[in-house]
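Hi Y.,

Following your request, here is the sequence exactly as I used it, all 276 residues.
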Amino acid sequence: MSFLKNRTVLGVICIALSLIICFAVTPLFNSSISQKVSIVRVIKDIKAGEQITGDMVQTIEVGSLNLPKALVKDTEDAIGKYSSADLIAGDYILKAKLTDTLMKGDSYLYRLNGRKQAISVTIKYFSNGLSGKLISGDIVSVISPDYMMQGTAVIPTELQYVEVIAVTANTGYDTNSEKQSANPIKNDEEKELPATVTLLAAPEQSKILAELDAEGKLHLSLVYRGTKENAAKFIESQDEIIASLYPKAADENDKSNKETAGSLYTLPEKEPSSHD
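Below is the corresponding structure, written out as tokens. Let me know if you'd prefer a different format.
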């Protein structure tokens, strides 16, 4: 190995390696970066359980570097299928988020990710549930006519703003679609009165709701119905109250949130305003 001690030989070897890197390795790397591949992108928000149509997706070309292998690359592989998760405009579609069969009417339950729970409360009297006018997405306050046997009607601090995710009749079928609520009832036989309302709640809220439901003493009052963005402001405000009342639980929830990527109930930064 004495030739390696010769500076001229070492210089030639270094120059040769540089040339190999410049004219062989680097072009291959650049080629891999610039290589394009067609994938399917969402151009309209798609809810879980919704069938995908041609106007919801498009094919685009992107760099192939570091792309997941399970991406859908042809719109024909997506159109006609059903989404198993909420997708927003700009999302790429993974094969795991598509299903060939229609999800059941309770598709909203597939959206739970461990941060909050779905809990149903009984509508004992027609008036308790806003006379059957509640629909999914509504923000309600839960009123207890005799909270903790104090003899006065109270909205528990934990239940000022709660999101409705379903309204269900005695038949077990949901009656919470906005389309159904907007259409007049033709006759009494077609009319399905609500039996339960399913709410999206934190564990601390669920416990209070279970107690109120067992006592059969609760009313739901409508606070807001409108855009998802404005509805989320109320939920964010309530979450902050829960965090202040139960700081230990909030810390544990923060740890859980770090382990759970994404949320179907994204909370904006603004507080609810009186004119929303």
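Helices lie at 7-34, 178-182, 203-215, 228-245, 247-259.

Thanks again,
Q.
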